[in-house]
Design a protein that fits this description.
This protein is an alpha+beta fold. It has 6 helices and 7 strands; from the N terminus they run H-H-H-E-E-E-E-H-E-E-E-H-H.
Length: 221
């Protein structure tokens, strides 16, 4: 895995530099609040990940081999690397020594059961319910799955730690977006909006599409 460009401490330092437009009293409050900035950094990276295209976040792509329970299910909360957004983060479910599952909604699954559908290993299905993935057919507590999904980025720890090894542009967007959150916390709406718009411009360039900058502005797919 490629090493991250910045440590958490360095990213917090850069956020502080970005918000260096406060008067002296405000600077003292901010400089005494590194745990606050670290918390904002964690919030900022989660929100940025939700706005960027997956093609820019492939460092978060992962998979894990698991075993279903007696009911043919596996709880996503038990994954070693937490899924970023539950079932929405799952790309594929593969039955080991079998085939990739055809993803169904719970309504579709119920209809298949009511129609006496016979599930076959040649065409396995998966569906999600209550943050669990279910597969058919299965052998209770035996069937193994490989779940392909997007993980949650590494949580920043105040004063130490190495963040997820995002590309340099993504790390810089996270820093700028976090500065927006810091300005907002310090009740400086003008600078908050400037930092937010700058981060959105950078995200637009990476996504190669428009995302909403203001509520009155429509986004383009």
């Amino acid at each position: 895995m490629m090493a991250a460009y910045y440590t958490t401490a360095k990213m917090v330092d850069l956020v502080e530099l970005y918000v260096n437009k406060f008067n002296n009293d405000e600077k003292e409050v901010l400089n005494a609040s590194r745990p606050l900035l670290t918390a904002l950094l964690n919030r900022g990276q989660l929100e940025v990940v939700g706005l960027l295209d997956r093609k820019n976040l492939d460092i978060l792509d992962t998979n894990q081999t698991v075993t279903v329970d007696a009911g043919g299910a596996y709880a996503l909360g038990s994954l070693t690397a937490a899924a970023y957004n539950g079932a929405e983060s799952v790309d594929e479910v593969f039955i080991v020594s079998g085939k990739y599952c055809i993803r169904k909604t719970f309504a579709e699954y119920k209809k298949m059961v009511n129609n006496d559908y016979v599930f076959a290993v040649t065409e396995p299905i998966s569906y999600f319910r209550g943050e669990k993935v279910y597969v058919e057919p299965y052998t209770a507590s035996t069937t193994q799955l490989i779940i392909y999904y997007m993980a949650t980025p590494t949580t920043h720890v105040d004063g130490s730690g190495t963040p997820t090894a995002f590309s340099q542009p993504v790390l810089e967007i996270i820093i700028e977006y976090t500065a927006h959150l810091a300005f907002d916390y310090m009740q400086n709406p003008k600078m908050s909006e400037i930092a937010l718009n700058h981060s959105f411009i950078s995200m637009n360039e990476m996504n190669e599409k428009q995302i909403i900058i203001k509520q009155t502005q429509a986004g383009l797919d």
